[in-house]
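Lab meeting prep.
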Amino acid sequence: MRLVVIAALAVVVSGCGGAAPQDCPSSPRLDLSDVDPNDDTLSFQYPLDVVEDPPQDADFCEHRAWSGGMFHAAEDYWRPPGTEVRSIADGVVSFSGRMGGYGWLVIVAHPEMNAYSLYGHLSPSRWRVEPGPVAKGDLLGYLGDEWENGGSRDEPLVAHLHLGVRAGQRTHYPGKGEWRWMAGWIKQCPSDLGWLQPSAVITAQTIPIGGFAGPAGGVVERWWTELLLVAAIVLGPVFWIVRSVRRRKPVSLFAVAVVVGGVAWYLTTRGVVLFAPIYLTAAVGFVAGVVILARRPRGNPSK
């Protein structure tokens, strides 16, 4: 029985396996030269100024040896730093912030189309859009310099736009694991996880119907990494809260509330979606500390 449990955990931790290159063929980008960005009747437009792609760009589902057996969940468009990046469609900016190897990352939700678009490697030092409604063609930001777009002075990253389009909404996906909402290179075939080929969406002027109606994986398959992370963060403080309540130590409870609240805030900025239980744990610690402090005897009155 123990061996069965260990084997099952190994399958889960491995992300249920990766696709073989032949099962996830690369899709060369489609010609977008006929997609006029000034045509108001179109639902989607090209996000950059010129439809011209150098041969170094990474295509959708492309598999490269240096990637460690992973697949590209987007299309890359190489342009000089400072190039304007615009929304491919009407929507709402649901995320605009720093995100690790992306430099500055912008997510635009398109609720009416049940999809969202992702714009990575933008500049954190130039103007960038704030969360809120945007129209097709609105400026989202600028491509970042090689040392700020996810690269560094020691390891610069060639300026380019990482453009992703995905079925569903950002909150349908976790912030960690293969199913994460901001994935760039992943072990599983992107098409199986809801990612769509951006140039095909722009050319067709629609989100494919029936090809991927929504997240296909089960709750455990999609969310196990984030659930494990949240559980690991919550269980320790909960134990400490119970211990502090029994010993009636409000200072310890306030300390737990501050630390856990800070961790929750940090994880929120890093894209973790299941942050509510962590905030709740911090709130419980704070309230318990206030209650114990309020019920503490004020001292014996003088006789």
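Slide two material, second protein:
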Amino acid sequence: MSANALGRRGGMIAVLLVTWVTLLGAGKPTMAGADEDRAGSIYVCVKESGRVRIVGANAKCQATEKKERWSITLPPGPYFPITCPPDSVPTGATCLDRYEASLWQTMNPTLIQRIKDGTVTKANLTADGAIHLGLASGDLDKAGCPATGKKCVNVYAVSIPGVMPARFITWFQAAAAARNAGKRLPTNAEWQAAALGTPDPGASPAPSDCNTKGNEPDLAGERGNCVSDVGAFDMVGNVSEWLADWVPLSTTCGSPLFSGTDDANCLAWASPSSGPAALVRGGDFGSGASAGVFAVEGKVAPSGASAGIGFRAAR
């Protein structure tokens, strides 16, 4: 076979293997043998020119073709393991921000792309003149991002350490800032899976424990012991976090989900006349023992904003 033919055949093989791996990801072929979940075979007819066509196992090739059986063995784990940008951690099929979101206003295209890529740094933001928002009541509205989120197109949710996380924000402002950064608010299930394993210090945290007793939030990622099993910081305390889910407005709190914890469970007795609410998770800097990975609240309207509620985003 000529060098040109070999080259063409190699290219066809690469295309076919990519196609076959894609098909395996959508649905595994039925095969015999102990490795049937991790191995696949395709049958091809190959011409001298290098042209390749996929055929069935029992098909016959033409006289000018040679029939071959190609196999592919996949490693353990997902066919396409998830790889997250540097500013986030993998949790299932989702990438969740490693840090609670800070909000930055900019119109610099290069900076915006870095934000969306998850590679922006505090130094990038300050050097390019981005404005840090979500630090005081009303500052977002004054910057053109009202409580409704309408026309809020140049404020971005950023996941970086060493900055004050956003607060004084409504659910709508958080959703808009996440959207602008190419992200979204996480679901309750995504948040819960990522939060598991975060140490809960109760009402008496040490300096490096989660901030559950203080006068204000700490800088994102500052508490070194406040890290979940998947590497997300501050999922207990610091600021409570808006989630994507809306629920009927709860009017009271019930018993903790697990005995032995004091985590708030304020998702009970739906109001017959008011609502809805958006879920808030984790507790904040003033929650004390009621903060925790199981702390849940359904008592805050999505139009509400406070000094203790922020968010983190997901892809």
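Talking points for slide two:
Residues 1-38 have pLDDT under 50 and may be disordered.
The two ends are 48 Å apart (CA to CA).
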